[in-house]
Amino acid sequence: MRSSLAVFILVMFAVAGCSGEQGGPQMPPGASGPVEVGVVALASRSVPRSIELPGRVVAYATAEVRPQVDGIVRKIVFAEAGKVEAGAALYELDDRKFQAAVAAAAAALKKSEAATAAAQVTFDRNEKLAATNAISAQTLDDARSTLLQAQADEEVAKAELDTARINLDDATIRAPIDGVIGVSTVSVGSLVTANQTDALATIRQVDPIHVDLVDSSTNMLRIRDEVSTGRLGREQGVVPAVTLTLENGREYAAKGELKLAEMVVSQTSGTFSLRATFPNAERVLMPGMFVRASVDLGSMPNAFLVPQRAVQRNDSGEATLFVASQDGKAELKTVTTSGSIGNDWVVVDGVSSGDRLIVDGFQKISDGTSITPVEVTIDENGVVKQTISSAAGNDGEPKP
Fold this sequence. Notes:
Blueprint lengths: L1 H22 L11 E7 L3 E14 L2 E5 L5 E6 L6 E2 L4 E5 L2 H36 L5 H34 L1 E3 L4 E3 L9 E2 L8 E5 L3 E8 H12 L12 E5 L10 E6 L9 E8 L11 E18 L4 E2 L5 E6 L5 E12 L2 E6 L6 E5 L10 E5 L25
Parallel strand pairs: 1-21
Antiparallel strand pairs: 1-20, 2-11, 2-15, 3-10, 4-6, 4-9, 5-8, 6-7, 8-10, 11-14, 12-13, 12-15, 13-14, 15-19, 16-17, 17-18, 17-20, 18-19
């Protein structure tokens, strides 16, 4: 019996010894070492401030061509979709009746001038006779009335001649502005009428050209607050520059200038309109085209560029990030952002120069976690170039 008990005790000690050799010394439950994290040092800098706004291309000037007189189109003297200059002839109407009206008005004027001359002679004669009391005062008054009536008839005849000449000139329909003319809505032989509803053609001035932008009143107030608090600065007298991105994603070569902002906020959408002007010699921008515009607002003198990968949002929607404290702890900070540039958030409050921002390994930590900071670098695409041991995969290979 005693021998059996001794054998059992020896077997138990042997099993315990094997187990100790395989597993080695065990860590107390819940104990772990510091977490390695990748950090970069933050430094304040002057960061350009811009806003992205949707926009629509609008012609610099638009004129709808309509006839001022009735007539039959005798000739069309422009090339559709071509450039025209102000004053250039576009349509020629049958002008024979207008020429006849000019001739008739000219003859009526001559007749009125002759009547005025005769009335003037009669009045001058009667005025001399009245001085010697050879005629009555009534006769002189009648002569004066006849002269005044003849002079008035002459003025009417002159006005009618001017009207006839204007109508004759309007028989040739001319371009009111420089620009590109569209398709003609009438052909030779068509009857057109004065001030008709339908335009004969439309001329659009496209060089330079406008781009109408839309922004919210909330954003406008935020920008004003940034200026008043000194977070946003701009040189006096410098006109904000505007850069366009076309519908195909390509950037428009020329930069524009912000010209005006409508001082009315829409009651339905809470937005207001801005207008920028761009050169358009190559006619790349066409009226009606939708674009994206980046408006240069100035620069933020003491801002930080923080990689987007390092910024998270809490349950309240606030932006947060981790920094490495001096005592080797992960410290959670709430920051204020003001837009983004490339792969970086622009942070204007919540961090200081010299803070060591945690950009890698933050998925494994929380506020107060013990960490081992490792200096890393981030390329222009926001990718960490140097790896840390805690980022190794299951196969032992480091992950970027």
